[in-house]
Amino acid sequence: MTKKALLPLLLLLSVLFHSIPAAAGSAYVFFNLGASPQKFEADKLDFASGGTQSLKKDNTLSDTGVLLGLGLGVDLKKTSSNLPLRLDVAYNYRSGGYEKRVDNLFNYKVTSLSTLLLNCNFDLPLGSSVKPYIGLGLGLGFIGYKTNGSYYYNRPGYSAYVKSESEGISSAFAYRLGLGAAYDLSERLTVDLGYSYNGTGEFTTLLLKESGLVREVNVKGKASMHDFVLSLRINV
After folding, report:
1. Which domains does the chain show, CATH number per domain?
2. b or e along 73-86 (b: 16 or more beta carbons within 10 Å of the residue's beta carbon)?
3. 131-148: pLDDT as tens digits
């Protein structure tokens, strides 16, 4: 992840934590439960020895996973600023478990997709008991993966069929665009029903470890998630 990609994340984090001292009675925690149709698009192979190779077929892996999440935030409407904004940090885990044969070379399995985001939500001032909002978020996305199969390794000075098997977690820049509506059950409890689109930058996931004359090979690709979420917000 580049320093430029980190700057918006650090800026929003700074705003959130500078708001907390003046936010007595406006802090909240929340818990998320939902469904997340998701996909990962394996785009190309990247060779440590130099160069890339585009994957020729439709190498999109997709499924619907269960979403579980939690977070904490500050409601600026309840502070001296009186702004209709909520700033929060949220972690959402999405189950995976779907697998596909990629270009008849190897099997790729997504075991999980998760995000850690700093969010800014704008509560639309409509004056009704149901409070609609729009929001955006910036942060990090994580993919859990497993790969296995055989690959014809053909680079200058060396070629061979090699077997590969690896697993791990990779990270990339992530963002969120969302909307929803909230309803106050009491002074302390708020229920929230929302939808958000989450996208990521390019993940680099290991396919083939370096061994002898065989150099490391990675699979690169991006993920996207459509989250339908029910949240319970507890004001503290």
Report:
1. 3-7+44-235 (2.40.160.20)
2. bbbbebbeeeeebb
3. 999 999 999 999 999 988
